[in-house]
Design goal:
Oligomer: heterodimer
Helix content of chain A: 10-25%
CATH architecture of the largest domain in chain A: 3-Layer(aba) Sandwich
Order of helices and strands of chain B: HHHHHHHHHH
Number of helices of chain A: 10
Helix content of chain B: over 70%
Distance between the termini of chain A: 17 Å
CATH architecture of chain B: Orthogonal Bundle
CATH topology of the largest domain in chain A: Rossmann fold
Number of domains of chain A: 2
CATH class of chain B: Mainly Alpha
Number of domains of chain B: 1
Number of strands of chain A: 21
Mean pLDDT of chain A: 88
CATH class of the largest domain in chain A: Alpha Beta
CATH topology of chain B: MetI-like fold
CATH superfamily of chain B: MetI-like
Strand content of chain B: under 5%
Distance between the termini of chain B: 40 Å
Largest sheet of chain A: 6 strands, mixed
Structural class of chain A: alpha+beta
Number of helices of chain B: 10
Number of strands of chain B: 0
Mean pLDDT of chain B: 90
Low-confidence stretches of chain A: 361-365
Radius of gyration of chain A: 22 Å
CATH superfamily of the largest domain in chain A: P-loop containing nucleotide triphosphate hydrolases
Structural class of chain B: mainly alpha
Strand content of chain A: 35-45%
Shape of chain A: globular
Strand order of the largest sheet of chain A: 7-8-9-3-10-11
Amino acid sequence: MSLSVDIRRSLGGFDLNASFDAPEGVTVLFGKSGSGKTSVVKSVAGLVAPDQGKVSLNGRVLFDAAAGTNVAVHKRRLGYVFQDSRLFPHLSVQDNLCYAARVSGRGSTDPKDVAALLGIAHLLDRRTHALSGGEAQRVAIGRALLSEPDMLLMDEPLASLDGPRKAEILPYLETLRRETGLSILYVTHNMAEVARLATHIVLIDEGHVVRSGAPEELLTDPDMVRLLGIRDAGAVLSATVAGHHPDGLTSLSISAGQILLPTVEAPIGANIRVRILAQDVILARSRPEGLSALNILPVRVLAVRRGEGPGVVVQLQAGDDRLLARITRRSADTLNIVEGAECFAVMKSVAVSQTDIAVGLQTGL
Amino acid sequence: MSGWLGPDEWQAVALSLKVSFWATLLSLPFGLMCALALARGRFVGRDVLNWLVHLPLVLPPVVTGYLLLLTFGRQGPIGSVLDDLFGITLAFQWTGAALAASIMAFPLMVRAMRLAIEAVDPRLEEAAATLGASRIKVFSTVTLPLILPGIIAGAVLAFAKAMGEFGATITFVSNIPGETRTVPSAIYAFLQVPGGESSAIRLVVVAVGIAIAALVLSEWLSRRVAQRISGS
């Protein structure tokens, strides 16, 4: 199950030249706005035609400029969730959900199951204008799922929603991934969404694919920090829930030991992923004592990247995982933090926000 | 109503209703095609089509009527073919009155439909295509339901315009009682004879009533199209 894209398109001085494979799972197309992400997804869906190149899904050719193949949008079997939900205003929620079955006869999936999965069962009789942004987007996702696509394309599905509404939908996306096993090509420029959903990342900048790879590798590469944004840089760790404590903390097992975080809503033994921002990690040369921070992990410095500013980004090996820490150049010099140095990474439990914890992803990374 | 209107007056009203009904019904598909082409089409000659559609709005009606007579009259290039092949005569027949009325009403019909089509968000049609709808299905399940109030509004306006058509009609098909004497022609005829004023006044009341009813109906339907598209 994989999508293969190799396209070129010139439009008004902007050159898109994107070549990547999206394996099974959630492939996140990440890049700044204007980097060409949406053009890529539209090309895959057939809403725009590239000048040159090829798009194929599981060996089925959808577009091939050289061979003159350009499969019509409605025959591509790709579900598309747009940034704006694009629900049909003249149809009820129920009729929006059943639209694909009505026009194409695909309809072995029960709309009630999908509605239950997305928490919209109570909205079926509503008109679409009576929905909140988050509800409308969940209906749009359900509508795309019910077209029984071979792959789901999601173009910044949360971008038009405010913070709380985003937090409301993210768990549904995680559930979706787990329950349906459907491969997703997900466009975003939001790092938290990448960290929670991605099983594969394609980094795109100015119309070109800069890097692609697994999140644990790509997100902890100090060379990628500039593209990902320094404030958003951080590692994604897979962890297992080890225990819940009466004082409101949860122990998590990671490869380097145990860490404590504010309550994680998941049963003991559940696999979750946690995003730890580079700016929340402090380094110490010796194991600190008398410190309020609860999480201290022994780490080894893999690389130090100096930027133009006063900060440096340090890549750390923690057990089998990698972490990023952002510290000042002065500290790095004073503490002699160089490649190979053994030190301790210190992290406040409360620094990790609930939005950086993905509990729905049982399959791990 | 036939008690209030005299038999001649009633004949004119009934004929006008018949002529307008057929003029509207038969121009609907052409009106929709033109509106779609003008709203969505990207083709050479789009400006020419736009110009042709709007021409009856700016030409003196008597000119339109005379051009119809030259084209569709028995000796005209199209009229002679229709006569020879199908035995259809339009000149000086109620069917010719319907043709004149539909041509004069056409710009109004196309305009109302075109506005409704342009108000449809093409992104909804894209979404429908990604859900597996072919172009025809997209049109029948998304575009058409959204523009339906606009189509009806265009038809109502065209009907009202057809009811009032005078210049092109009288030039093309004359003013024959029972055949081509529609309400406006009848008012004109009554005003030519002494003592015809009361008949003319009664027909004026009918004409004003129909025109107002059509405008109110068309307004109401236009609001419906806006509501439907915004979803409220």
